[in-house]
Fold this sequence. Notes:
The protein has 24 helices and 21 strands. The protein is an alpha/beta fold and about 600 residues long. Helix 3 runs parallel beside helix 4, helix 12 (about 315-335) packs across helix 13 and helix 14 (about 385-405) runs parallel beside helix 16 (about 430-440). It folds into three domains: about 5-145, Rossmann fold; about 155-315, Reverse transcriptase/Diguanylate cyclase domain (Alpha-Beta Plaits, 2-Layer Sandwich), CATH 3.30.70; about 325-585, EAL domain (TIM Barrel, Alpha-Beta Barrel), CATH 3.20.20.450. Helix content is about 50%, strand content about 20%.
Amino acid sequence: MSPESAKKPVALIADDDDVMRLMLSxxxxxxxxxxxxxxxxxxxxxxxxxxxxxxxxLDVNMPRMDGFSACERLRSSPKTSLTPIIVVxxxxxxxxxxxxxxxxxxxxxxxxMNWSLIGYRLRYVLRSARNxxxxxxxxQKIERLAYYDALTELPNREYxxxxxxxxxxxxxxxxxxxxxxxxxxxxxxxxxxTLGHSVGDELLSAVAERLQDSTRHAADETSDICLARIGxxxxxxxxxxxxxxxxxxxxxxxxxxxxxxPFRHGETDxxxxxxxxxxxxxxxxxxxxxxxxxxxxxxxxxxxxxxxxFTLFSEQMKTDAFxxxxxxxGLRDALRENRLQLHYQPKFDxxxxxxxxxxxxxxxxxxxxxxxxxAKFIPIAEESGLIKQVNQWVVASACRQINEWSEKGIxxxxxxxxxxxxxxxxxxxxxxxxxxxxxxxxxxMLEVEVTESTLMSNVAKATEALNRLxxxxxxxxxxxxxTGYSSLAYLxxxxxxxxxxxxxxxxxxxxxxxxxxxxSAVIALANSLNLTVVAEGVETLDQYNWLxxxxxxxxxxxLLSRPLLAEDFEQLxxxxxxxxxQRLRVAV
Length: 588
């Protein structure tokens, strides 16, 4: 047994009667207590502060300060607010008993006393008091767990919600505003993924400290403000103020500035930036949840603007968020009900005039919003995690179409566009191989188009995937070439078959010297590497003639054909007797 656990409880006894004090002391010692005794209430208060007793006995009638007054004073002290106090009184009338309890007594003993029972009473009162204190401590711990974040010791989301009730009421009563800031750390997931959650936790604690300091310095003297950690790497602050816009901007600037200096762990420096959304009561919400939702929406808008940004909520954001949710729900329904469509844009060989391939273009016709551009719904699919299902659907549909066309004598490869998210973070090789195997499609009949910017964002991963696909026989094209700043060395490593000139450069060839120079350089580069060149977005005869004069191999665009449904594409393929020159004249 340790010295600490063997330590006896201390009884403080205050009585001006020497005999009574001595007898109480003897009984307490026999009951296992160490005793400190004094002769009046004032001395009891001083002694209690010095010895921190486990139990206190106070006689009622003492000089300088009586027992009732001493009891009240002891209860007002944080040190003895929960210490069990027994009042010893010669009166057992109702008034005396009530006064004892009103002064804060735990129990009372009336004189004359049954001395044989006093020791038991002391131990019982002490045990009961300790049980109550333990229960209160557990309740406090549970309450802290319920309302405070264990890692940062900041209030949590539930605390902020409860605090907001008072703040909303005061703001409404005093014609004030509330401003809610919602912060999300940019790229925090990388820390957890690369260095582990323990390092991530250290970083979050350090971020919390900086936010506390900056909030304290940025808030004016009259600000009623509550800072909380409301999620993994998410923090929020609610402030009551006269001008929500001004206060919100001041706090957001202080938060951004506080996170500018690097965080250090061992020999590693971390540079963290926040994205912050701001909303104001009453303009952007009537209660906590509405305000939080508005700030969350603004935060995502800030994140889309780049790292370390903050922005104030607007109704347009709400409209955009609702449209985004509607599109996401529509995409989920379309996947479940197989209502997506592929349109096929023909690629024409300029030397023979024949169709030498088709690019599968995904289309979503929303029941409420109508046709949705892929430029709008593909980013939503990537953000929501639906992109994997979308890619699976596209590849499967393209393979199915290859088989259907093959049975009709149409044997041309179909190109599918791979999402950057799926190509770099998914498993594109197995997806393509497994799907081709399922539909018994030769890999050479399925081309894979990946944008130049996707390849350049992770050269090592892209090179590995492209080399594997090339070995398996898939056709490979670099889409939107000219926009991703790749070099000759990278193109040789990528091991692709074709370059597709981005439509933004094709639009002004022959009239804009810069675009013409870029297209000429791409065609020359492709020829030097024995790569096929495909020009996208060819819409005029002048564009077509210029590209042909420069040695472009294939073209696609509205000049020759819009993207077509499968049955319309079949009709196009049947018109083999129409020469390309005739098509061009018809188009013009």
